[in-house]
Amino acid sequence: MSRLIVVSNRVNPPSGAGEESVGGLAMALAAALREYSGLWFGWSGQSTPVFTGQLSMQRIEGVTAATVDLEESDVEEYYNGYANKTLWPLFHYRTDLAAYDRAYGSGYQRANRRFAETLRPLIEPGDLVWIHDYHLIPLGRELRKLGLKNRIGFFLHVPWPAYQVFVTLPGHRQLVEAMFDYDLVGFQTEDYRQAFEDYVLSEAGGEKVADDVLRAFGRTVRIGAFPIGIDAKDFDRMLKSTRARRMRDLMTACTVFRHLIIGVDRLDYSKGLEERFTGFERFLAANPDMRREVLMLQIAPVSRESVEAYQEIRARLDALSGRINGEFADVDWNPFRYVNKNYRRDELAGIYGAARVGLVTPLRDGMNLVAKEFVASQSPEDPGVLILSRFAGAARQMREALLVNPNSPDEIADALRRALAMDKAERIRRWRALHDGILQHDVTAWRDSFVAALEGAEERRTALAS
Predict the structure, then answer these.
(1) Rounded alpha-carbon distances, angstroms, from residue 324 to 259, 278, 279, 283
(2) Residue 234 annotated among the catalytic residues of the structure
(3) Is the CA virtual torsion 244, 247, 252, 255 positive or negative?
(4) Which whole-number Å values give the CA distances from 246 to 23, 242, 301, 342, 390, in the listed order?
(5) CA distance 364 to 362
(6) Catalytic site residue 423?
(7) Which of the residues 365, 435, 441, 442 is marked catalytic?
(8) Among 92, 132, 135, 157, the one annotated catalytic
(9) Strand order of the sheet with strand 152-155?
(10) Which fold has domain 4-229+444-459?
């Protein structure tokens, strides 16, 4: 078996058997690495006045992690700048928020070059290199410049935007050209894969050599859709933990005689939180008979506080949540709780399990593992209902959810009424189909399908060339 080298912007393996408050990407990568010898490489999250390239190595929960500190200018221009002020809003269709600054682009290229120079000595012949997400698109090219001949795969966790949106990025052609230094490029859904293909054929003068192979810039690359899943077995174990059961009991006691509606998202403009809050407000206004029967809990940990757009959305959400409670609360009941703190994954599992409705309504999302974790947390005998944005990648797999247009507060309000009125038989039927899909398309299937495609990518290209 080949050794697997996983590379991502941040290295954050869970230190408590998957129970710490870490994101879906971190959990997925840790699960992937446990099955392979190898290591996880990336930024430590720390800055230093001068970049030295000195590595820190540690082993956590069966995962070997190698991290490097970045220079302060790299953090500002590469991470806060190009990654989070340029690519993130662009890939989520918020061109109005995208900042185009040459210093950001230079910092992005410089940081990727430094990552490559630090990583290259760690890679042995025969290793498979798997690079993740929009922060590191040029890394494959930088490794090739250093003479690396190994198979290198790239997986994009966020959406790939439509052709007309992507061409608004200055230097868009150079970014796509760098992706042709990979052997395999993976996307979350067929829609995103098709959008990338459309750009290559329309803008880059490329050609489609086969259903899954494109040629452009004098090179070929294999592309595919590899929808990510959760670690279903580990999540089931976590549901049985003391902390998860305690949190479920606590939420059940807090919402006695009422139905809990739960939303869990990082505080981000792509998550549709303003539209969601307004949708709940309209539900309360339109259904006075159901007001005291519900409680909505929105957990939204704050992120990227140094970015102005995130400061602005936090202020708007604070005002909106206050308005909802001010308008509809009574002396013995508040309809809405809005919490800006992190919870452990086992605690979240308990909260999900106590909810009658999971409200997952991003305006645009690569996949969204919260939707899958909500379904995995439900009782088979009396499951809750998932309301899901049709613009989340998960919607392609989770058709039995109530799919909504997240831009429409009225549609969200209507879906809430339908979910709360849904009889048990329909809830069970929908949950079973969703749960079967989660088990079938879990993180192991995602990992194995991508790694198998990467191992076969060179042979596929060679066969087509002959």
Answers:
(1) 18, 9, 11, 11
(2) no
(3) negative
(4) 22, 6, 21, 17, 33
(5) 5
(6) no
(7) 365
(8) 157
(9) 55-60, 63-71, 38-48, 4-10, 128-132, 152-155, 184-187, 219-225, 213-216, 207-210
(10) Rossmann fold (3.40.50)
The one-character DSSP state at 79 is I
Q: Would you give the end-to-end CA distance of the chain in angstroms?
A: 28
Considering just the CA atoms, what is the radius of gyration of the chain in Å? 22
Task: Specify the fold of 232-440.
Answer: Rossmann fold (3.40.50)
User: Residues of CATH 3.40.50.2000 domain(s) within the chain?
Assistant: 4-229+444-459, 232-440
- CA distances, 236 to each of 63, 409, 412 (Å): 21, 33, 29
Residues in the chain: 466
Strand order across the 294-299 sheet: 336-339, 294-299, 259-264, 357-360, 385-389, 402-404
Of 70, 74, 18, the C-alpha closest to 44 is: 70
| Stated pTM of the model | 0.94
Dump pLDDT digits (tens) for 177-190: 999 999 999 999 99
Tokens found for residue 423: 């009889």
Q: Residue 261's pLDDT band (boundaries 50, 70, 90)?
A: very high
Residue 53 CB partners (closer than 8 Å, separation 6+):
68, 114, 117, 118
